[in-house]
Request: fold
Amino acid sequence: MNVTTNCKERLTGDGNRAMRRFTVLGPLSVVLCSLVFLAGCDKTALEQAQQEAREAKADVQRLKHSLSLAEKEIAGAKAELNAVRQSRDEQQAKIDRAAQERDVALEFAQKAQEMLKSQSSGQVSATAALRRQIAELTARVAEQEKLIDQLQQSAGAGPTDLPPEEVTPEEAPPAEPNEG
Reply:
């Protein structure tokens, strides 16, 4: 809160500091002026004025001490504020780095997911092709088994009555030259 006076206030960095000096030095100057005024009065008035001057000086010293303590407290608070600001800036930098790392990881995960999808779709199509081949081969085996049965029936009840393990290559029916 600024109080205006007829005096011009010198601002040396902080207007409040100049104002505090004025409020401290103001009563002191009044006391000193009254001492000068009372110098022409009797001795008791002079002693009383000197006593008041001593009290005023003591008050000024107490006020200076209080001011010094307040300035130290303000300096400590400023230092703490600067430390908090620095800590906040460091934490913000960590948050920014973590957000960038998260974005990179998310992008990598999306690319990996897309790659897995493309690979899985390729595997699905490969699996389907293999299943078609298996079905075709199963159908061929079934056809060949029918053909073998027909050949065995047309050849008669010869050596093919034996189980397949006991049939020797010499006794096996000849393969048709048209089969591949």
About this structure: The first helix runs from residue 15 to 38. The chain has two helices and no strands. The CA atoms of residues 8 and 163 lie 129 Å apart. Residues 1-12 have pLDDT under 50 and may be disordered.
